[in-house]
Design goal:
There is one protein chain. The protein is globular, with a radius of gyration of 27 Å. The chain has three domains: 6-96, no CATH class; 110-269, Glutaconate Coenzyme A-transferase; 285-529, Acetyl-CoA hydrolase/transferase C-terminal domain (Glutaconate Coenzyme A-transferase, 3-Layer(aba) Sandwich). The strands form eight sheets. A nine-stranded mixed β-sheet has the order 14-22-20-18-17-23-28-32-33, with helices on both faces. It has a seven-stranded parallel β-sheet with strand order 10-9-8-7-11-13-16, sandwiched between helices. Strands 1, 2, 3, 4, 5 and 6 form a six-stranded mixed β-sheet that branches. By secondary structure, the protein is of the alpha/beta class. Helices cover 22% and strands 24% of the residues. β5 and β6 form a beta hairpin.
Length: 531
Amino acid sequence: MAVGKHFEAAIVIRGEGELANALFVLGEQLFRQTDGLRFVPSGRAVFDADLHTGPPQVGVIVASTTAPRLKQRNPRGFAFSLSLVYAPAESYKEGHMDWRERCGNKLVSAQEALRAVRNGDTVQVNWLHATPVTLSEALIGRKNELHDVKVSVIGPIFNWDQPDTERAFTLQTPYLGVTTRPPMAEGRVEFIPVAYYRHKELPPGIECDVYLTPVSPPDKHGYCSFGTGLFMSKTMAAAARVVIGEVHQDFVRTGGENYIHVSEITHFVEPLAPPAALAPTVRNEEEVAATEVICTLIANELINDGDTIQIGLGSVSSPLGMYLGDKNDLGIHTEVIPGGIARLVQKGVVNGKYKTVNPGKAVASAFIGVLPDELPIIDGNPNFELYDFTYTDDLRILVNQRNYVAVNNAMAVDLGGQGCSESIGPFMYTGTGGQTIFTITAAYCNPGRSVIVTPSSSLVRGRRVSRIVPILEPGSVVTAQRAFVDFVVTEYGIASLRGKSLKQRAAALIDIAHPEFREELKKEAKRIYHL
């Protein structure tokens, strides 16, 4: 029998009390035909055809979660037809169907769950690698039925830019990704600038009628985990009229706010695809070399034992954890925990000993880019706590941190120290995220340090351009305001800006610019700042 093969099976019973016996007989017949199978009717119970207590050696027959269909009434009883599917035996574990029991009649098909979306609703979809692909596909499937539905996403892996959806859906986002940049460039995305957050409050302009998110199966207490992608799920779920969970059985569990009870979820849906995954960042040799130098400089010169660190999501800053192995008693409070940090927790390098907010805990709203051996370190580890994005990025909470170091990427830095991290001129490329808040907080904390990182240059269509510029391109968004930027780091060194005049800032930044552009930058600094 082929794995995943569906087939129909008919049984006849004489009354409701004989249903179990009839299913047992069907299981016995299937067992004889397939050299050893187990029948699981509607995910509610297990019948061992051979009366053995161990898991089957060949496979499992699993009924669909839909109720049996009444085919006909006859003098001998009722005839039912069930849709069955064959699954490999190694996927079976004793009691693995129990979570479906806990979901009860909330467990439905994706199509049935998405019927809850109404015309005019705002549908929030969990972010980045926490994109619920099966639910997203089911919502797109209603494009001919709905109109004026706002779909709000952040860096979605699912492509919402599909034909014939304009009447049904309007895309909204405060942060662009690969799939949303093309429609944004063509005016088909509503961009909402968001730069500050208050715990348990939706940011201005962000609404939520229906929330779509992946979750783990409920545990014995009825609690689900958001896995590695909590993000803003707690606040979204609290605000939503309808919450739909796409259940993934391999999700990790952490402390903090990374949970939601069955009673808070309107519908559960089994996925038709594995959890979404972000594509790894592709770097050329030059970018790798620049990143290694920048991260080494930060680790050696700007991070001290006992500091608490925020690591911004980006190609240069994200690998920083790989360079901190020689430090002691570090803390983590950040939006997302990148790869390498879990290993540092396991080794005791990151222990939060001197943290003044959530002491002893590595705190974030999600994990992104974790290494293959890190998920087992994270799962159930009390040293990790995921909190809602509105908590991790709440300035009122962050300013209570001591010895706080924020490390964030910039696309360009001008000679005054302003950092643009989200646009190319006036054209949006990503979004603010939490960078503005973290930059301000780290500079404000006493002591604290705000660090902006960028390669000195990059190749654009085969032409080298400087990332250190006289002035930002007109229309560029200032993500990191110059008064809150303490250090700028390129592969050519560290520019210390705190307390410096504009002339001093310009001179320091020219020193870490790519050599090819330094003379030109000096001329512009003389013109602008009389350097």
